[in-house]
Amino acid sequence: MNPAITFDAVTKRYGTVRAINGVSFEIWPGQMVAMLGPNGAGKSTTVDIMLGLRRPDSGAVQVLGLAPQRAAAAGRVGAMLQSGSLPDRATVAEVIDLARRLYGSRRSLPALLDLAGLAELANRRADRLSGGQARRVQLAVALAGEPEVIFLDEPTTGLDVQSRRLFWAGVRQAAASGATVLFATHYLDEADANADRVLVLAAGQLVADGDPASIKARLSERIIRAAVHPVRMGELRTLPGVRTVTAEGPEVELRTCDADLTLEGLYRCGATIRNLRIDGATLEDALITLTSQPSSAEA
Amino acid sequence: MFPYARFEIRRTLRDARFVLFLVAMPAMLYLLLSGFSGTGTEDGLAAPAAFMVAMMCYATIGSACYAIGPPLAQERASHWMRQLQIMPLRGTSWLAVKLIQGGLLILPGTVIVAVAALITHPPGLTPVRWAGLAVILLLGSLPFTVLGLTIGEALDGQVANSATLFTVIGLSFAGGLLIPDKQLPHAVREISTALPSRQLADLAQAAAAGHQPSVASAGVLMLWTLAAAGAALALRRRDGAA
């Protein structure tokens, strides 16, 4: 079996900034892959390169065994770009019908309207929709040609919970026919719920690649802060689950992959503990941890 | 290609500014001012007929520039252009649709001027001269469509709107369409021979008067078309797959 998408040592710079730097991966047909990372990680650049909208400075990219532009020109790729990519002064039905016809009428207009839950909005102007409705129109455009590869660039940004659920139901229905789906997101829960593989990008590099459960375990770090007396650093470092310990006077910060176990150990070690707080690390924080462990790039 | 052309033309006709300023305004100007255009003749055309031709040229320039430029600027900003680029629509097909769109969208504005003239001051053109005028205006829309593309590729949003308006009014004024070129300052008249608006006006007047089209005028229009097309393509490459 040939990969649906191949990235081989791809680098792209804007001026002096390296948007992506030596990124390599292969995605297999039928996979549903999340590309996770904070803003500025290089997700959109990666999607743009896969779509042929930008050319890499170095490295090789193939989509369905073709140069990205050729795969798109052949109508084998569908994509949802970041929000707002709809024309004004056209109705929902007109926009979707145009996309459908450009892709050679592989799906009927009513079927597409149904698939994206837009039947009742068919005659509304596409530039006068709520965020969630507009995203569903973009989804219908992306799916209009029954593509073999579907790219979704932060598809649910700004959507409420209900709209997100509807949206992913539509994507899963489309992917059921065996399409390869790659979506960029900065929500860990979204990657976890919808992908069977997660690529983590940070600062233009691929820092992790694995199934959602293992990525989640590595990213769902907690931060325990407390005033501890006395502070015995050596002992704190050996508490179960603890990854790093920093102290400033009596104030101690423990980063842990299992807050329950760490707390149990902390109370057992006999120190006085006051003013205890537990926070989830932000995705950015977690990614900094990951990027500082270069070995984690192999999955 | 055909579905895309239909989609674009339908969308432009929904633009209130387009309909008001470019479909209705040349006819309104004609109705308001043709009574004052005098009784003389100009290059073998009665003054009201010459004014009709000028207003049809103005409608052509405005419709072609305005139908293409500001919407393109807006579509680049909203990323709809990027969405189109990844769909199976070749760049050459896209360009062909834009040229057809510019050509077809001069029809409402010019036809309404002609109808207004036929009702108020029948210009008395033979069918052959009407046909010649129509061909000149359709082909003459090309440089203005391509100018619209250049503006839409080069400028963003509101700036593209203003630049289009400035271009249309400036070219129409300097080309002697809004006031007779005999009343233009000498310097403007000197420069205007290099402008596509002036050359379109000359070609259209000649067609309406039954004269042979001037090769030099056609050459100027072609040069403008090629130069603007080159600029638009260069700007497009800067934007696109770089």
What can you tell me about this protein's structure?
The complex is a heterodimer of chains A (299) and B (242). By secondary structure, chain A is an alpha/beta fold. Chain A has helices at 43-51, 68-73, 92-102, 109-115, 131-143, 161-175, 188-194, 212-219, 233-237, 259-268, 283-291, and strands at residues 5-14, 17-27, 32-36, 58-63, 77-80, 149-153, 180-185, 197-202, 205-210, 222-229, 242-248, 251-256, 272-280. Chain A folds into two domains: 5-210, 3-Layer(aba) Sandwich (Rossmann fold); 222-280, 2-Layer Sandwich (Alpha-Beta Plaits), CATH 3.30.70. Chain A has eleven helices and 13 strands. In chain A, the strands form three sheets. Chain A has a six-stranded mixed beta sheet, sandwiched between helices. In chain A, helix 6 links the parallel strand 6 and strand 7. The longest helix of chain A has 15 residues, at 161-175. Chain A is elongated and about 70 Å long. The relative contact order of chain A is 0.14. Mean pLDDT of chain A is 87; it is low at 294-299. By secondary structure, chain B is mostly helical. Chain B has one domain. The longest helix of chain B has 31 residues, at 47-77. Chain B is globular and about 55 Å long. Classes of the chains: A alpha/beta (299), B mainly alpha (242). The A-B interface holds A 51-55, 69, 72-75, 77, 79, 81-82, 84-90, 94, 97-99, 101-104, 138, 141, 145 and B 3-4, 7, 10-12, 14-15, 74-75, 78-80, 82-83, 85-90, 240-242.
